[in-house]
Design goal:
By secondary structure, the chain is mainly α. It has one domain. It is built from four helices and two strands; from the N terminus they run E-H-E-H-H-H. A two-stranded parallel sheet has the order 1-2. Helix 1 runs parallel beside helix 2. The N and C termini lie far apart (36 Å).
Length: 103
């Protein structure tokens, strides 16, 4: 009999394109949900796309930079939870995919 595996999805309101002063709060929610996913034994964690407000071209690159910065922090958090989120078999699969460590 095959064991069930679980995939957790982050809350949809997490938005790293939001105003800069709210980004730490979005990360707090991401962290709490990622820790809960690890405790539940999820082996995958899905982060949904953010919603970008209309901005001028100059603001667009800044918004992407903020998103990359905070998603990198989320990746670092996932790595620290890896023994719980990714069992040994999944980690070996991830090692064979060089694109996993890139944003």
């Amino acid at each position: 009999m095959r064991r069930l595996t679980y995939t957790a999805h982050c809350p949809h309101p997490i938005n790293f394109f939001d105003d800069v002063f709210r980004l730490p709060r979005h990360f707090d929610v991401l962290k709490a949900s990622m820790v809960a996913a690890a405790e539940l034994g999820a082996i995958h964690y899905v982060v949904h796309a953010s919603v970008m407000p209309l901005v001028q071209a100059a603001g667009l690159e800044a918004a992407y930079e903020h998103q990359r910065e905070w998603l990198t922090r989320g990746g670092d958090l996932a790595k620290s939870l890896a023994p719980k989120i990714f069992p040994p078999r999944a980690t070996s699969i991830l090692r064979d995919r060089p694109h996993v460590d890139r944003l």
